[in-house]
Design brief:
This protein is of the alpha+beta class. The chain has five helices and eleven strands, in the order ββααααβββββββββα. The relative contact order is 0.16. Residues 1-18 form the signal peptide.
């Protein structure tokens, strides 16, 4: 807050028999301003889940050939990887056909049909992406899978004109439950690093590599069963000297984007 300095100029005391005058301070012209908010981690202009000019089903595509474009593409790859898109076989094949720099890169990164089939079996979902009850599509159930980058952070590990490596830390949710579920008891909530390398191939950013981290190497908040953490706790967990940055739409309170049972 700016404080006005009031300077009193004394010209001596004027004493009169009947009355005396008392100098008065001039009205303050200072302007009150709200204190500047300094967040624990820097905030970028990159919107997690935004950008791109086109789609391959749930996957956003078409990013500028810039570092920010590469980061946003990597974020959208992660959002698609952890979302429900892959449960639908048609969507899975189209997205997988687009998002990799080469078939060899895809194989090296461990993506496979067998993995998707196993996930469908675990969560009782058919190849049309429909939750099942007793082997039949159940319209009263839904897939809750999601990653919440607005409650995490990211850092650029390496960057060049044609290749960028970005590391992300965020909470995620897996599982199926009733459309109107009121608790998360049937869902798995976890925290993970996603370390993705993207390369500029055929006019867009594509995945060309990743690095996996064991669960015991991933920082977890004081309450790992909640997906919302404060900016201060993120800074404590990740450090303030390693380049960790908040996306533009980072939040530390419940938002409409957080769609979990009971929300």
């Amino acid at each position: 807050m700016l404080l006005a300095a009031v300077v009193g100029v004394g010209a001596g005391a004027l004493i009169m028999r009947a009355a005396s005058t008392t100098p008065t301070a001039a009205p303050s012209t200072a302007v009150s301003r709200a204190p500047e908010v300094v967040e624990a981690l820097p905030r970028s202009t990159i919107v997690a889940g935004g950008g791109g000019v086109s789609n391959v089903y749930e996957l956003r595509t078409g990013y500028p050939k810039t570092t920010d474009g590469a980061v946003q593409a990597a974020m959208n790859f992660l959002i698609t990887d952890v979302g429900p898109a892959y449960y639908n076989q048609t969507h899975y094949e189209a997205i997988q056909g687009y998002m990799f720099a080469s078939p060899e890169a895809r194989a090296k990164m461990g993506y496979s049909q067998a993995t998707i089939d196993s996930m469908r079996q675990t969560y009782q979902i058919n190849d049309q992406g429909q939750p099942l009850t007793d082997g039949k599509p159940d319209p009263t159930r839904r897939i809750w899978d999601a990653v919440y980058l607005q409650y995490g952070a990211y850092r650029i590990v390496e960057a060049s004109t044609d290749e960028v490596r970005v590391m992300m830390w965020a909470p995620y949710v897996y599982g199926t439950d009733a459309n109107n579920a009121t608790t998360t008891s049937n869902l798995h909530i976890g925290w993970a690093y996603a370390d993705k390398t993207v390369s500029w191939v055929d006019g867009d950013w594509r995945q060309s590599g990743n690095k996996a981290y064991p669960a015991d190497q991933v920082p977890k908040p004081a309450d790992p069963n909640q997906v919302i953490t404060s900016f201060a706790e993120r800074a404590d967990l990740l450090g303030t000297d390693k380049g960790w940055t908040l996306p533009a739409n980072a939040a530390e309170v419940d938002t409409p984007e957080l769609q979990l049972p009971g929300k």
